Amino acid sequence: ISRNEAWVWNVFDLYFLFVYFCPALYLCRDFRYKRFAERLAQLEEAEGAFDYFTLSYRSFGIQRRSDNGLVLREWAPGAEAVFLTGDFNSWEKQSHPFTQKEYGKWELYLSPKVDKSPAIKHLTKLKVLNTSRHLMASYNIWKSIYVHKSGQWSPESFQHPRPPRPSSLRIYEAHVGISSPEEKIASYRNFTRDVLPRIKDLGYNCVQLMAIMEHAYYASFGYQVTNFFAASSRFGTPDDLKHLVDTAHSMGITVLLDMVHSHASSNTEDGLNYFDGTDSCFFHGGSRGNHSLWGSRLFNYSSWEVVRFLLSNLRWWMEEYHFDGFRFDAVTSMLYHHHGIGTSFSGNYSEYFGIHVDEDALVYLMLANHILHKLYPQCITVAEDVSGMPGLCRSIEEGGLGFDYRLTMAVPDKWIQVLKEVRDEDWDLKNIVQTLTNRRRGEASITYAESHDQALVGDKSLAFWLMDKEMYTNMSALTAMTPVIDRGIQLHKLIRLLTHSLGGEGYLNFMGNEFGHPEWLDFPRKGNNESYHYARRQFNLVDIEHLRYRQLYAFDRDMNLTEDKYGWLAAGQAAVTTLNQADKVIVFERSNLLFIFNFHPCNSYIDYRVAVEHAGKYKIKLNSDELQYGGHGRLVQDTEFFTEPMPFNGRAQSFLVIWRLLKNIALK
Predict the structure, then answer these.
(1) What is the pLDDT of residue 340?
(2) Recorded E.C. number(s) (predicted)?
């Protein structure tokens, strides 16, 4: 049984757990699997096969036949009439009505023109007008339609296969629109040309793209989706995005999409809200269908057609754009009726099983993972869950939800809390190590020191917490480091390497943070006079040789390359052999590597004994004190260390680390 925190057991604890609690857990597991199996069987019986069911995007929306006739099909069960309008009919409201079909579906056929061309030209602007009387009076709903299939975008010819699934996942979290130093919305082409080579050079083997699903409000960071079957047009064309993905694959880079199936924009002009004139078409009706904090709509996962819509959406992104998997956003909001609002999770199992759990949402996630992994065995799914739901990353057959990884969201919060509230000399290393290692066994985690959340306005990145305003004036390597910059650069490296090596089975970094990006992230809005000044990433700083951002970049690159060579993320959890609070020293072994960290703000050690499992000779493989990383170059890099059969800290072998200064090293 996996636990969220360390427990000290006595005989009564064990008796209570196994006699009383385990049967309840097994019942919950069996109940969830039974509901999943029943739903899958119903789906396959009614639709023929889940493969066909999840390809429904090929029959809904706008479809072009071989003779260039166009078939338009929508699901709007509450509508009394549905019409198509747009440029092609001079925006005439009722000249092109749909025909009502069974189960709330509507259909319209447009025959080809005399010259055999489609009735609607490529790039034509269209809207659907739905009429309903559910809201006291006639209610007109205008909806934009994405015209991918009408004109159409000739499919980009993918030249490169999906790369093999990485055994060690190193994720570069990125936003296309802010990927340029210029004060503008950057494009897919810009990202392909300028950012992908940097990701490759840095040693990341996966890019996670945010804000790709179409969203009307740029400042929503892509989390207020208005069109689930459209790549955001503000960054370029569908072909541009396909070229980005194909280019990444040519570099051996896996591409994940930030998938928002937890909620949708409440917009009625261009979103799903009130699509058929009711508040319960795709969403729960009444207050249950509204997220009280986000102001967005919440899907009804018990609805057959909603499940069709969402599962087809996953297939569409996999098939049309060749994504390699998804990072599912806000899974906590999906899993619980309380959506995590005002709830603190302690790890008690009663928090994860009961009537407060949205079993329909849970079954939907099981279906999504089942279908994705059956159809695409190399697919990667990541869950953003703050609650610590047990079984999130266990197999569906075990009653788990089937995700491959979960995000360890407590780790960045811990680093921010330490930097904000604790003096260097008072750092509680035991608490830090516990936070980094406190994860469910048998469930892979992706750990990060900071993500886009910490970069947003209102918070600060690690670099900004460490160095603040001095980043604007004192980052030149042509002058001596100030105490603030010296401390900031050294801790920036140590925090990231400790998180990388001790924290999980995968690692994530938000774009720009690898080199200590000097500013927060703020999208154009009324509050900042629609400015793009902070809606950018200043990669140009890395290209200036005398700036210390280049040194942080180099360390991040070599940290990833060292992991790529030795594979500690794919290894078992580290064995911590030294956790000395007074010395501020952490020593642990992982993947035949020995990691030694000295977090003491003042003390260095010239002869420090460390324990090792394997006898032999050890050499320095990564040293944060090298000059190229902004260190002080106080260690002899080719020093060799030989073990002796002296038991120490639970190991049969040990050796003395003898040199003039110990700062931070990885030894092999």
Answers:
(1) 94
(2) 2.4.1.18
Q: What angle do CA 125, 129, 135 make, to 5 degrees?
A: 145
Give dist(CA 132, CA 140) in Å, integer.
7
**The token pair that represents 383 in the structure block:** 């869950």
pLDDT for 457: 65
> How far is residue 71's CA from residue 111's CA, in Å, rounded to a whole number?
9
User: What SS3 state is found at 69?
Assistant: coil
Per-residue DSSP letter, 435: H
The 10 Å Cβ neighbour count of residue 566 is: 20
Q: Which helix (H) or strand (E) holds 327?
A: strand 325-328
**249 has a pLDDT exceeding 70:** yes
CB 619 within 8 A of CB 605: no
CB count in 10 Å sphere of residue 484 = 15
Q: How many residues does the chain have?
A: 668
Residue 18 has pLDDT above 80, yes or no: no
- Tokens 């909001």 belong to which residue? 333
Q: How is residue 546 written in tokens?
A: 């005398």
Q: Which candidate, 237, 378, 360, 249, places its Cα nearest to that of 307?
A: 360
Q: For residue 211, is it left (φ>0), alpha (ψ between -120 and 50) or beta?
A: left
Of 4-8, 65-69, 250-254, 438-442, the range with the lowest mean pLDDT is: 4-8
Tokens standing for residue 147:
């015209």
The pair of structure tokens assigned to 104 is 């709330």
pLDDT, one tens digit per residue, over 173-192 is 999 999 999 999 999 999 99
**What is the H or E stretch that residue 238 is in?**
helix 238-250
445 φ/ψ angles, rounded to the nearest 5 degrees:
-120, 150
The answer to whether residues 170 and 563 touch, using CB atoms and an 8 Å cutoff, is: yes
Q: How far is CA 232 from CA 91, 172, 437, 516, 619, in A?
A: 24, 20, 38, 28, 49
Active site residue ranges: 329, 384
